């Protein structure tokens, strides 16, 4: 991290800052000197210390003073929905764009930098919960909230606030997301689990990556300009492409760079400008993240670290003449800024200083061969003059085509000086060869050693070049492997979603079926217990799952099913239906019809038993009543005929009909009703019954005479109805003998027989 020297190292103020850093691990070196000193003096006045040395001693004697000092210096001033108009813009303009980009299932990552006591991340949680709903929010959203102050983070983790702290929360949100306890308000537990608090120094610690919305309000204004230059690229790195940055009111100028563009300048909301190359967390430049914020793997980071820590400087110029890469050593050596990446190389000072490189790049492109430029003088302000050896070499892609030019800068000042010394020594030896023969031999030996060193350096350079090519090849292989893993991961995710959907589909079917379904394993342990079973027996699924079915204390006498359960497992076939009397959870006696079937997997051996329990209480009662009603009608002396609608032949009659007609049922089945009516033929009878069969009339009543086997006639009244909905349809006739019909009048107290 770059630091700005603010005072003499031995000054009392510097010693105080160093003591704070060593005691609490908080680095204030990037903060503005004037702001930092002013806040510390304010705290010194409150504890009556008149010098930094005295306050230093006070801190050592009173460690608890650190808490009050940090609260003063770190300015833990925050509130829910602070600057409400800016939050309204965030809700209207930014949240919908994030949700649209993420789709229905994409995860959403949010980072609140300098979260203080938690009001800001909880405001973000409420905003996204309103847009997504609580369930979707808890499934998709992660909010990272960081700060330097451990005491403030501890307050935020408790999520408990006084009434004055929640005054800025709109009333509907307060009722929906807070629980009132005594005189405090506690943030909703489900949303609280999605907010992750942690201690983090945005100046020195590695940033959190793949962030969709980064909130850093009123923090950058307290940092030195150099420190801001470090923090802003870190924030840029943390965001995914098209990610959003939400700053404070006083921080407009801080984001006016090519890294960000304004979404709403008044509200200080900016969006990230994606770049082909960008600065990594370690300080080098590498490819930008994709839209999902994917990062390179460990091997790629190892390659990046090797390049950044190399003693050689590397610059790369693409076919269009744009500078597309600069490692750490090259940036420091030639003052290459991040904004220079992507600029034409000929516009930069390095293109002609320490030597003219534009023509050399063109020569390498045309010839395809490396050019080495030895010992070029190079001087930087405030530094010793140096000599640089420059190698200009083409870079080839897999198809063998050159796609860029690599410039490698080696500091050969020492070799150059040694060569100068050698040349001077040789000149001196030539003039004094006779007088200094022994010295000449020593210098020749030294020359040979230096030559050997030079050869070793060249060999090392070739080995490094070869290693670099091998690492590039390895990087391509690892990238290919990573793509294959991503495809496999996507397939696994899809299969997981399909399995989850199938499970929910199956559970919904079980809940919807209006019968009891109980699934047991081969040890008769309950595996599944649907909603019907919960409602009837009064035990929830989670209470019985994993319990022995035969040990359950419910209204169904389960012990009586032991033999049927064992037979089902043994035969691997359904057993006969079982009807049992039981008592539901309300104490109502019911009749249950139970079907037991084996639980089969891919036609293998039975792995359990499925019980289907149906409440047939009403059906049993109806069947009993129908049986009772049939017995009464069958024994009744009233004549009831069931006729074929097509032939009018007798299908079934009751006992009274057999008695009064004088024929047995077997004989009647050979006779049509109109055959017993001497006064009417088949055609006339069909015309009479026609309106009934066509549905024009619901019933027909008529009087006729019936002839008995002994040829005696008796007058009857017949009422006929047609039941077309029955299968098969049936014609029902009820006959009444009117020979002895009686009539009762209002003025007659006696019933007189009426002659037919």
From TrEMBL:
Which keywords does UniProt give here?
Coiled coil, Methyltransferase, S-adenosyl-L-methionine, Transferase
> From which residue to which does any coiled coil extend?
415-502
Checking InterPro entries in the record gives: Bact_Chemotaxis_MeTrfase, CheR_C, CheR_MeTrfase, CheR_N, CheR_N_sf, PAC, PAS, PAS-like_dom_sf
Instruction: Check the record and name the PROSITE patterns matching this protein.
Output: CHER (PS50123), PAS (PS50112)
- Pinpoint the CheR-type methyltransferase domain residues: 1-273
Which reaction does this chain catalyze? L-glutamyl-[protein] + S-adenosyl-L-methionine = [protein]-L-glutamate 5-O-methyl ester + S-adenosyl-L-homocysteine
Pfam families with a match to the protein in the record:
CheR (PF01739), CheR_N (PF03705), PAS (PF00989), PAS_4 (PF08448), PAS_9 (PF13426)
Q: What's the superkingdom here?
A: Bacteria
Which E.C. number(s) belong to this protein? Answer: 2.1.1.80
The name on file for this protein is protein-glutamate O-methyltransferase
The scientific name of the source species is Azospirillum endophyticum
Ranked from the top, the taxonomy reads: Bacteria, Pseudomonadati, Pseudomonadota, Alphaproteobacteria, Rhodospirillales
């Amino acid at each position: 991290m770059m630091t700005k020297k603010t005072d003499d190292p031995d000054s009392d103020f510097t010693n105080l800052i160093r003591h704070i850093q060593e005691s609490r691990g908080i680095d204030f070196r990037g903060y503005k000197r004037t702001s930092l000193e002013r806040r510390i003096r304010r705290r010194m006045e409150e504890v009556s210390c008149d010098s930094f040395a005295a306050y230093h001693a006070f801190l050592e004697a009173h460690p608890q003073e650190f808490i009050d000092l940090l609260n003063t210096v770190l300015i833990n001033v925050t509130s829910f929905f602070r600057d409400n108009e800016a939050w309204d813009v965030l809700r209207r303009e930014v949240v919908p764009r994030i949700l649209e980009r993420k789709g229905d299932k994409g995860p959403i990552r949010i980072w609140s930098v300098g979260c203080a006591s938690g009001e800001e991340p909880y405001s973000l949680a409420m905003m996204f919960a309103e847009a997504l709903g609580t369930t979707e929010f808890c499934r998709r959203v992660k909010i990272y909230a960081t700060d330097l102050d451990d005491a403030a983070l501890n307050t935020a983790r408790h999520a408990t606030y006084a009434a004055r702290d929640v005054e800025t929360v709109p009333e509907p949100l307060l009722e929906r997301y807070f629980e009132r306890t005594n005189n405090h308000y506690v943030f909703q537990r489900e949303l609280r689990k999605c907010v992750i608090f942690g201690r983090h120094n945005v100046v020195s610690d590695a940033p959190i990556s793949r962030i969709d919305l980064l909130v850093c309000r009123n923090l950058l204004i307290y940092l030195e300009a150099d420190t801001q230059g470090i923090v802003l690229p870190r924030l840029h790195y943390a965001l995914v492409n098209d990610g959003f940055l939400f700053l404070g009111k006083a921080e407009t100028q801080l984001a006016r760079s090519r890294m960000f563009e304004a979404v709403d300048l008044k509200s200080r909301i900016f969006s990230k400008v994606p770049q082909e190359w960008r600065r990594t967390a370690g300080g080098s430049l590498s490819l930008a993240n994709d839209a999902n914020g994917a990062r390179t793997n460990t091997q790629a980071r190892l390659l990046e670290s090797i390049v950044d820590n190399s003693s050689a400087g590397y610059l790369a110029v693409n076919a269009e003449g744009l500078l597309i890469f600069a490692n750490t050593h090259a940036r420091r050596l030639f003052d290459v800024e991040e904004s220079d990446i992507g600029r034409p190389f000929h516009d930069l000072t390095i293109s002609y200083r320490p030597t003219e490189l534009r023509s050399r790049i063109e020569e390498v492109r045309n010839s395809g061969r490396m050019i080495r430029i030895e010992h070029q003088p190079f001087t930087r302000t405030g530094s010793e003059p140096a000599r640089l050896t420059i190698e200009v070499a083409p870079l080839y892609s897999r198809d063998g085509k050159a796609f860029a030019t690599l410039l490698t800068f080696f500091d050969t000042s020492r070799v150059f000086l040694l060569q100068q010394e050698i040349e001077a020594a040789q000149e001196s030896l030539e003039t004094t060869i006779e007088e200094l023969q022994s010295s000449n031999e020593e210098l020749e030996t030294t020359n040979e050693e230096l030559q050997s060193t030079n050869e070793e350096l060249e060999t090392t350079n070739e080995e490094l070049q070869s290693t670099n090519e091998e690492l590039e090849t390895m990087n391509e292989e690892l990238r290919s492997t990573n793509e294959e893993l991503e495809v496999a991961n996507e397939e696994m995710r899809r299969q997981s979603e399909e399995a989850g959907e199938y499970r929910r589909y199956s559970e919904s079917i079980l809940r919807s079926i209006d019968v009891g379904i109980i699934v047991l394993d081969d040890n008769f342990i309950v595996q599944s217990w649907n909603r019907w079973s919960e409602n009837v027996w009064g035990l929830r699924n989670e209470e019985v799952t994993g319990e022995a079915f035969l040990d359950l204390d419910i209204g169904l006498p389960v012990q009586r099913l032991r033999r049927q359960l064992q037979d089902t497992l043994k035969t691997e076939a359904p057993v006969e239906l079982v009807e049992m009397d039981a008592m539901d959870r309300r104490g109502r006696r019911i009749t249950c019809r139970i079907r037991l079937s084996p639980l089969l997997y891919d036609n293998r051996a039975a792995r359990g038993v499925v019980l289907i329990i149906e409440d047939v209480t009403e059906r049993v009662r109806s069947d009993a009543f129908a049986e009772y009603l049939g017995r009464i009608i069958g024994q009744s002396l009233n004549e009831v005929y069931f006729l074929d609608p097509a032939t009018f032949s007798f299908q079934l009659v009751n006992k009274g009909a057999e008695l009064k007609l004088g024929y047995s049922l077997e004989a009647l089945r050979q006779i049509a009703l109109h055959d017993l009516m001497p006064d009417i033929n088949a055609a006339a009878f069909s015309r009479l019954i026609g309106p009934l069969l066509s549905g024009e009339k619901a019933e027909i009543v008529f009087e006729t005479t019936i002839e008995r086997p002994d040829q005696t006639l008796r007058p009857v009244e017949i009422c006929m109805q047609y039941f077309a909905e029955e299968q098969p349809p049936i014609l029902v006739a009820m006959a009444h003998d009117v020979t002895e019909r009686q009539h009762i009048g209002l003025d007659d107290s006696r019933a007189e027989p009426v002659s037919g």
